[in-house]
Amino acid sequence: MIYISRWKIFSILSVCLVGFLFALPNILPPTLFQKLPEVFQKTINLGLELRGGSHLQLEVDLKSVLKEQLLNTLDEVRATLRKEKIGYAGLAINLPQSSVVFSLRDVKGDPTQQDKVLKLLKKLDPQATIVITPDGQGSLTLSPESIQQRNKAVVEQSIEVVRRRIDETGTKEPLLQRQGNDRIIVQLPGVEDPAEVKRLIGRTAKMTFRMVDEEAGPIDISPSGQPRANVSPGSEILKLEDKSARASFIVIKKQVGISGDNLIDAQATFERDGGTPAVSLKFNAIGARKFADLSGNNIGRRFAIVLDDKVISAPVFRSLIPNGEGIISGNFTTQETHELSLLLRAGALPAPLNVIEERTVGPSMGADSIRDGQLATVLAFIFVAIFMIANYSLFGLYADIALGFNLIFLFAALSLLQATLTLPGIAGIALTIGMAVDANVLIYERIKEELRNGLRPVAAVEAGYTRAITTIVDSNLTTLIGAAVLFEFGTGPIRGFAVTLALGIVISLFTSLSLTRLIIVTWLRRRGTVTSLPI
User: Is the pTM of this model over 0.70?
Assistant: First the structure.
């Protein structure tokens, strides 16, 4: 008689019980579901095409990132040459070549000076390629590796900021995935009108505190609406956020006094005196120190609060602000203060995002998909069950019982892992139903072969399970490799298919090799002496 140890029997039955308990919440009504312990209050998440919602494909503007990186390098080159009192001209960026170009005035034909400049610039970026020709033409070109690393970091940071912004809106179970080098997939289940989310995602929300250049000349507005003024190299003209029809501009210093990176909190509030909507800010220790220094050194002077290259407010420092807390007022509405505080809490995007694809899936379409998927799964189960009973009699019924537990385990695993069930995922379940009995077919055919070779029933069962196991593991392992490749290189629904397929394979190995074996051994023990098998 085939022997199965007690601990194996206990383990198999325990797995069946636990799988049933974790799958059960998916079919319970809400009133009973809420009474379950917290550990069992996990159900399968439905994907966008099943639940309905919005799909956005965003593109990170990496050209602006490269331009900003080159501009920062240009500032460093300028500061270095000025500090060493080396004359230069034509300092500019060459965006297509990813380089900063310049012309040295006083080092033509002087190798010593040229070597000095090379060493100075090499310290700025050891990975950069620096070339200085004998006639003094120079260039500092960023390395492809540093650009690639920067781009990767920017995309990952963008995903995190977008995730924080969406979480702030209360959208449940959003799905964010990187696609390719510069794209982000955003799926918002249950959101049929993504306009508000899209507006929040699209804003860079880069905030800085900078001083107003009070020494700048008056600003003239050209007939085309462009501002003109005598501005020093350290200042720039920015648009002043104004809800009136007339455009207003202001000259502010380029030097950043405080960055939004030092913010730890932002909340919508109201001003104490006028009761108008405003946003309260709270900085971290570094920001508080900078805020105190900035306010203390500039009492009576105007400073500008700049958001996305627009001045939203330009108040005056009335006194020292020592605690790192302040209020932004800018003729806001209540809705605008809530939106602005949300953006500031979530942090600034490192680069602009462009929406290049937008799709909306209605809930009725999702309900149709679920109904069709359920019908396909039930029909697949019925046809497979009939096939197994027709071909393998009672042992076929045992394989069908294992197939039922296969589905239970699959739903339990999806619930426990909080995986998202997609439309291709349902196809994966239907496919798994067909594949789940493959192992039992191999085992049963092997048992039949052993019976034809003259083995007794019990020995044939033992030989069938023992000798078929290698073939079963090998065939399922190749499918599992395919599922792993799909998960690694696929996106969205393709990954959902890969998850259900992989889980189905692992679970089917357990049900076909352990559960059916336990059922058949139990049947053999109860029958006592067996002269033939119902197979």
Answer: no
In the chain the first and final C-alpha atoms are separated, in Å, by 18
Structure-model confidence comparison of residues 338 and 370, the more confident one: 338
Per residue in 5-32, pLDDT (tens digit) is: 888 889 999 999 988 988 888 888 878 7
Tokens of 504: 């189905």
d(CA 106, CA 338): 56
Kindly state the tokens that stand for 36: 């379950």
Distance CA 400, CA 384 (A): 8
User: Rounded distance, CA 131 to CA 134, Å?
Assistant: 10
The burial class, CB within 10 Å (0-12 / 13-18 / 19+), for 72 is: exposed
Helix (H) or strand (E) holding 176: strand 175-179
Cβ pair 524, 530 in contact under 8 A: yes
Q: Note whether 280 and 342 are within 8 A (CB).
A: no
- What's the CA gap between 457 and 444, in Å, rounded? 12
- Please name which of 483, 459, 476 lies closest in space to residue 513, comparing C-alpha atoms: 476
Return the axis-axis angle of helices 144-168 and 195-202, rounded to nearest 10°.
Answer: 140
What are the helix (H) ranges across 352-492?
A: 363-416, 423-436, 438-452, 457-489
Beta strands in 95-173 (DSSP E): 99-104, 129-132, 137-141
Residue 245: φ, ψ to 5°: -70, -25
The pLDDT of 322-330, averaged and rounded, is: 78
